[in-house]
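Thread: Newbie trying to understand structure tokens

Hi all, I'm a second-year student working on a class project, and my supervisor (Dr. K.) asked me to get a predicted structure for one chain before our next meeting. I've only ever worked with sequences, so writing a 3D structure as a token string is new to me. If someone could post the tokens and maybe explain what I'm looking at, I'd be very grateful. Here's the chain:
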Amino acid sequence: MKEPVYLKVAMILEKQIKNGEYKIKEKLPSERELAVMYNVSRMTARQAIIYLEEKDLVYRERSSGTYVQAPSIQQNNIKSFTETVGDLGYEVHTNILEFCTVHSVSSICKEMELPISTSFYKIKRLRFGNQIPMALEILYIPKNYLKGLEQHNLENSFYNVLEEYYGLNISRVSYKMEAIVANPVYTKLMLIKKGTALLKVSGVSFDNNDRKLIYEESFYRSDLYNYHIDINNQ
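---
Reply by user tm_fold:
Sure, no problem. This is what the structure looks like when written as tokens:
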């Protein structure tokens, strides 16, 4: 059976989107323009757009046009941001916004079940996929657990640093999740509109010795990221 013309147009556009010729959030040509570009009817161009919309590659805004949809990134296991986003074909990079030592942070000490005098590394990282800021991470790690951490490159996977230099793995996590409205600082950092919802994930990561290793507060763009959770009744 001969392939429908609208499907040929849709496949061309899909390839251009996946190759990055049309960037995430970029506006596609109008149906009229597509019809001229590919020498097809406007109805055929419309069918091609509908096909792409059904595949969640594009979305429409009334009275504005059709735009490239950002893929929804699912976190459904204990994998680093680098692995999760990189596995989807994104180019991942990180900006270190803060790396310092903090002392006697009562709320963190309580979460980690450590003495109030405990000193922590505090690491704040802005995580990008294809130049798009997707997540803001704030990590607290007891200094005496990872001595010399400041000597390592934390612009890539922190989990890799744990494994390669300290012989540690994250075995399990205990997180809570909530939706919050981005404050002005987060709005500016993540290049989002005022009032945009963020997914806040906070809690503790345990190492392979079942020790509380990291307390984390992370903020994810809700338009790009979602968590998938399975709960078994045992």
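A couple of things are worth pointing out once you decode it. The helical segments are 5-18, 31-37, 42-54, 81-86, 106-112, 158-166, 184-189. The chain has seven helices and ten strands. Feel free to ask follow-ups in this thread.
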